[in-house]
Design goal:
With 226 residues, the chain is mostly helical. α1 crosses α12, α5 packs across α6 and α10 crosses α12. The protein is globular and about 60 Å long. Bound molecules: iron/sulfur cluster. The site of iron/sulfur cluster has 13 residues, from α10, α13 and α14.
Length: 226
Amino acid sequence: VSSNVTYRLMNLYQAMYNANGYLDWWPGDTELEICIGAILTQNTAWNNVEKAISNLKREGMLDVERILSSSTDEIANLIRPSGYFNQKALYLIEFCKFLQDNQLDSLKVMEAQDVRGRLLNVKGIGKETADSIMLYALGFPIFVVDAYTKRLLSRVGLTSNNASYDDIQDLFMENLVTDIELFNDYHAQIVEIGKNYCRKHPKCDLCPIRINGLCTWSINKSSRKS
Ligand code: SF4
C-alpha cells in the first residue's frame, strides 16, 4: 500500500465530493432494476437507459417471470432506446434465467469471488456490469471501473494509458479502506466528472479537480504541443 496513492485518491474524491455533494447512487428503485440498468447501460448514455427502464416499468416488466414469459422481440422493442436492443434483450433473458437459480438474496450471503464468478458466466455480463451489480444491487465492497474511470485516472497521472480493468480496480482496492459507501460514491463522482468535464475533449478550466490543483493534464498537454 502506498500512502501517497491513498492520499492522492482521497484528495481526488474530496474535490469531486465538494463539487457534487453525495450522489446517492445507483439510480433505481429495486435491486432488480439496478441489475437491469447495469446491463442496459453497456455502450450507451444513462438517459437512454432511463427511457428503456421507464418503458419496462410501464409494462410491468421489471420482473423476472414477466421477462421470461415474453418474447425477445417484445423486450427488444421496449428497451430500444438503450441501443443494441436485440442483443441486450437476450442478455436480460439470460440474466433472468440466472436469477431463477440464484436469487438475489442468496447471492448476497455468498463469498464475493464466488458471486463474481457466477455473474461473469452469464452471457452479456462482463467485469464492469458484474461489479456494478455486486456493489450497487448486492452490497459487496468492490470498486467499479468504467471508461470514465480509466480516462480520469490516466489523465491525473495515477495510471498509465493502457492500464487494464484489473490494474485500475486493484489501485483503488489496495489503496482505499474497504468501505462500501466510499466505493459507491467514488464511482458515482467519477461518472459525474466524466460526463461534465473529463470528456474526450475535456473542459479542464471548469473542472473541480483542476481547480483544486489535482490535475495538470491540460497544462502538460499544451506544453507538449509547444
Ligand atoms: S482537469 Fe481536465 S483532464 Fe484533469 S480531470 Fe479535469 S477535465 Fe479531466
